[in-house]
Amino acid sequence: MAGGGARWRLALVLALLPVPGGLGKPTARQERARPGAAQHEDRPGFQYDHEAFLGKEEARSFDQLSPEESRDRLGKIVDRIDDNKDGYLTTEELKNWIKRVQKRYIYENVAKVWKDYDLNKDNKIAWEEYKQATYGYYLENPEEFQDATDQHSFKKMLPRDERRFKTADLDGDLAATREEFTAFLHPEEFEHMKNIVVLETLEDIDKNEDGFVDQDEYIADMFANEEGGPEPDWVITEREQFSDFRDLNKDGKMDKEEIQHWILPQDYDHALAEARHLVYESDVDKDQKLTKEEVLDNWNMFVGSQATNYGEDLTRNHDEL
């Protein structure tokens, strides 16, 4: 992981999916909407750019194409991004495109798992349905979870999920509509869920449970110095970032307000930052906008192919973008 100046993108990794209609045996998952897991400079090659520009699944499908096919499909996407059909892509047009891609990914993600949780098919997901689908196996077969780490994980995750669910459930009926369930799965996208994102981040990083994140805890969340050698340069830089920019009141630790400033900065628009980055890296004539030729000349920043091969085989209708 590299430090300073990185673009933050929140990503919720949902790996606790049940067997549809039954008591799926749960497996551990990353339950925090976690900042820093997708810092731009750390992703292999242009992976972050591909996922921001296309969405995760579409990026994986491009990874299975030949370079020629990738360029051809990218050209068609460029035409769709060019809203005013003037032959140029502006930063604003790219920003709007990236926001649409992110929104589509979120709602498609919810649609994929909806049927697994809406067990009685009433077009709502009750907390009891979610708990049964996700934790039913654990609750009915506790003897299979004798490992102390497993027990700790599931005992921690269940009340944590319940707290998040109840926060997303705005009408308090313990049954989530699609919008409420979207807020549950993607809390970073909803204003009323921000306190949950901050609290979960604090709970995960605050190992001494004093209600704060000190510099060592902050670094430990990114880097484990298992070999005991000198810290790499990026870790030293990240320590400086903590002192200079994270610890705003200079008391040696981050409180909840400082954590929110770190992971959910009010003055930061990741879509705009990515759009500016794409224009800067591809704008050969420096006129602050991109022609189709400039995009295609730098195609591997926008999309992948078999030559870059980051993903697995996934197919989808590209016209849905």
From TrEMBL:
<keyword id="KW-0479">Metal-binding</keyword>
<dbReference type="GO" id="GO:0005783">
    <property type="term" value="C:endoplasmic reticulum"/>
</dbReference>
<feature type="region of interest" description="Disordered">
    <location>
        <begin position="25"/>
        <end position="45"/>
    </location>
</feature>
<feature type="signal peptide">
    <location>
        <begin position="1"/>
        <end position="24"/>
    </location>
</feature>
<keyword id="KW-0106">Calcium</keyword>
<keyword id="KW-0677">Repeat</keyword>
<comment type="similarity">
    <text>Belongs to the CREC family.</text>
</comment>
<dbReference type="InterPro" id="IPR027241">
    <property type="entry name" value="Rcn1"/>
</dbReference>
<feature type="domain" description="EF-hand">
    <location>
        <begin position="69"/>
        <end position="104"/>
    </location>
</feature>
<dbReference type="GO" id="GO:0005509">
    <property type="term" value="F:calcium ion binding"/>
</dbReference>
<keyword id="KW-0732">Signal</keyword>
<protein>
    <recommendedName>
        <fullName>EF-hand domain-containing protein</fullName>
    </recommendedName>
</protein>
<dbReference type="InterPro" id="IPR011992">
    <property type="entry name" value="EF-hand-dom_pair"/>
</dbReference>
<feature type="domain" description="EF-hand">
    <location>
        <begin position="105"/>
        <end position="140"/>
    </location>
</feature>
<dbReference type="Pfam" id="PF13202">
    <property type="entry name" value="EF-hand_5"/>
</dbReference>
<feature type="compositionally biased region" description="Basic and acidic residues">
    <location>
        <begin position="28"/>
        <end position="45"/>
    </location>
</feature>
<dbReference type="InterPro" id="IPR018247">
    <property type="entry name" value="EF_Hand_1_Ca_BS"/>
</dbReference>
<keyword id="KW-0256">Endoplasmic reticulum</keyword>
<dbReference type="InterPro" id="IPR002048">
    <property type="entry name" value="EF_hand_dom"/>
</dbReference>
<dbReference type="Pfam" id="PF13499">
    <property type="entry name" value="EF-hand_7"/>
</dbReference>
